[in-house]
Amino acid sequence: xxxxxxxxxMLKFLAIMTAASMVGLQGYSILFNNYAxxxxxxxxxxxxxxxxxxxxxxxxxxxxVFLIMxxxxxxxxxxxxxxxxxxxxxxxxxxxxxxxxxxxxxxSFGFHYYETTNQSLTLQYFSKDTTPIVMGRLRSLAAASxxxxxxLIWILIKFLDYRDTFIVIGILVAMAGIWGLLQDPTHKxxxxxxxxxxxxxxxxxxxxxxxxxxxxRQIFMxxxxxxxxxxxxxSVQEMTILFIVNNTIAWVLNPLIGKAIVKFGERWISSxxxxxxxxxxxxxxxxxxxxxxxxxxxIDNILFNFSVAIRTYFQKIADPKDISSSMAVGFTINHIAxxxxxxxxxxxxxxxxxxxxxxxxxxGVLSLVAAQFMRSSHIAGEDVLPVYTVSETEEV
Length: 396
Fold this sequence. Notes:
396 residues, mainly alpha, Growth Hormone, Chain: A, 0% strand, disordered N terminus, disordered C terminus
């Protein structure tokens, strides 16, 4: 087997694990609010607390650095999918506030640790010119899997109750993880990863952009959706339509975003993203049009997919031995804002709902300035080995 062929098992492995992760995450997310309210009878405070708990594993992603000392990284990825399936599957078996906190933690550890290892393995196994394309196609696959998950749940819930629906979704995801545990898509021609936490001055720009991206993500996930529901009175049906539209667009555009990063470079793509973010958050703050707000939400979702440029930029400046550790550290940095921003933003919302969005525009300005220091050349030198290149006709 030549070096190019050696990458194909990893591509297949990551594709199946990514599809499973999105089926589990979206299945849990779609059912969560109705299950929490209708079955467990939680109020807003209880739901908000659980949402905060869900972000804790992302903040603790740096612990993956220590886990890969005792378990191979691809096996940790597959085990994380099993954990995601387990957390989803047992949710319906523990219909209480404490039970929902526990299952949310289990599910979230599975999802966040898979995302950490997924990013790390992609950066390790694919070349600097190929990685944006692979990441774009994996994100496209994730969007398609999200749509499929929504359709599956729409069908299942017609015939099953919440408990059995959670179990079916959990079993499907866990089976994919078990399949992954039986695979070995690796080879020995990669640089060995440093098995310790890495913080380096030359990665400072990557840390800054990652932190700002996490802050922007929280405003998008928490306050943009809340604005549509609270201020513009979007119904469940309308939000479902937006969900389908967003994922359909992502399915089509994500491969093109990857190609654009290869053609134009990370600095230009990130600059477009952050200019768009500034405009979108200002419009969120001042528009009184339901249609315009919905349009901003869709464009916001599209631009968020441009964030893969941060990781491909890191690949170009990084010592290949630092990738695994740095992805875990970066994932933790990305989630720092999740610890305090929802609570702080909620307080500011009570003063004036426009303040979180104005702050979001400010984050966009800081991100735009920081992005100008990105350089798209292969600073770290040539790839250590010839790695797999995705052809125009090959699909993930």
